[in-house]
Amino acid sequence: MTDDALLKQLEESTKDFSRHQAETLRSILQHQRGVRYLQRHLPGAGDHNFLIDAATFRLSVPLSCYDDYADYINQLADGDKCTSDDDHDHRHLLSVDPLVCFFYSSGTSSMKPKLIPYFDSTLSKGASHIAHQGSAAVLRKFFPPRPEVNKRLAFIYADSITTTKGGFKVMAASSFPLHSSSNPNRSLFMSLSSPMEVILGSNVEHQMYCHLLCGLRNSDSIDAIHVPYAIGLIKAMWVLESKWKQLCDDIEKGILCSLINDVRMRDSVVQVLGGPQPDLSNRIRLIFEKKDWGGILSKLWPNVRYIRSVMTGSMKQYYSKLKYYAGEVPLVGGDYFASECCVAINLDIKQPPDLTRFVMLPTAAYFEFLPFDLAENNVVGEETVDVCGVEVGKVYEVVVTTYRGFYRYRLGDVVRVVGFYNSSPLLEFVMRAPKTSNEIVTEGDLMAAMEKFQLVLRNTMGMAIEIVEFTSSVDFGSSPKRLKIFIEVKDCDMILQDKLQESNLRKCCSDLEDSLGSIYKVQRNKGEISPLSLSVLKCGSFDRLLKLAIENGTPASQYKPPKIIRNPSIVDVLEENVIVTI
């Protein structure tokens, strides 16, 4: 299908959202009527002539979360098909389609990712094909391919594959095309500056170094820079700042430093280097020696036209830093695709995070909207509305019924309906939904407060202090409970200097507490919360969290530093790396 045909199909689907939604739900229920989960709530679902409207479906099938599927998913992972010995017809647990593998969720707040079953669904493939190919068509519309400059520097990692007890592979959703034997997708690798051996490597730090090295070797051929999440490019820039001399040496000599010990990766990168390149090395070295990191990406890659990454939600905090590195190069936003299903597409990809709007895809899944009260940081009841009931300006938690085994599933994303594109809702991503009613700050509250805190810190201390990363946790062992915020700054030694006296830091901490949002302020004023605790961490503390997450199964390509930590063992790791606490 041509790009014009794809874009036309997308456009047409948004013109009658309600009809497409009704057809999508009917298609899902007709196809999946024999699954065990649905038959628990819809006794007649197994009948061949089973028909049900959306209102009856919402009345009969309860809202669900991951825990409602955990037993079924564990049975699938173990290779079981039924839940009891007398289940003679071996009814399928969640889907009638064959199970292919499992995808990992990001699992950032708990460090233990969830398993998302991936079924071989023709219907789902059709829906996701339109979404993914439509997204690519939108990108090509803004940036038509250039045959003479046709490489992409992509910081992607296929991640390691694990296997369940039942023999099913487990991987990141983004890694599936890279690992799938049925879809080798060689054209994907052909357009990348890094060889396949780098993408399929097992050490993220080494892979990132090799991505940078191969990108610099092909500096004049790089058309675009791609990274799944903004934090990925920020980390790559930190590697660039600390390793640029070694990178220049490797290009000059045409060999790879001894740091990289993966033989296949080494051999493939040496082949990309193509022998000593002293002229290129000198050119790049001169750029670095100026120590001007503003616009560095366009200086190193003069033909790059755009940088693409997800920059909404918790990634929004990195936007200003990316703008600094990018200079005049446009930052292009990503789409709203979850591991469970595609949700919405970004048709205006050049907008900054604050103005990014996602157009919902009516055939990707059946969508419901659970009203959400930002002031209370919680949903309003258990009654959802469909697209006909949403109101512009209102906030909702997204609920999905998918082609792949989730029914009235709370996705955990809070969005604001800001308008309509034709008849399709336009969404603004607000935040991840709270896990419990005990949470006293939202991700949005924390990010806004930390942005102000950064400015206060610089003004009070009289020096440029850059907060590298931050997170929070509620200490329920304290009486009353206490919010703990952990920060890591770029130069940890500054914290120990005389200029950073405790009184100055305490003043900044007080300003931070005053910015933490209405939920926190109300409880603090009532005496239900102890004074805020602010801890400064050793350099590299958040890198340790990344390594811990990867060790626990979180894919490196999907890792997002948690803003609210709910796992006490993760808090313990941070506590071990505290320099000073106020």
From TrEMBL:
Entry GO terms, CC: cytoplasm
One term of GO molecular function: acid-amino acid ligase activity
Record domain GH3 middle: where: 358-432
Record keywords, A-Z: Ligase
Chain ranges passing through the membrane: none
UniProt cross-references to Pfam families, sorted A to Z: GH3, GH3_C, GH3_M
Coiled coil: none
InterPro entries: GH3, GH3_C, GH3_M
Domain GH3 C-terminal, residue spans: 445-568
Similarity annotation: Belongs to the IAA-amido conjugating enzyme family.
Name the UniProt record assigns to this protein: Putative indole-3-acetic acid-amido synthetase GH3.6
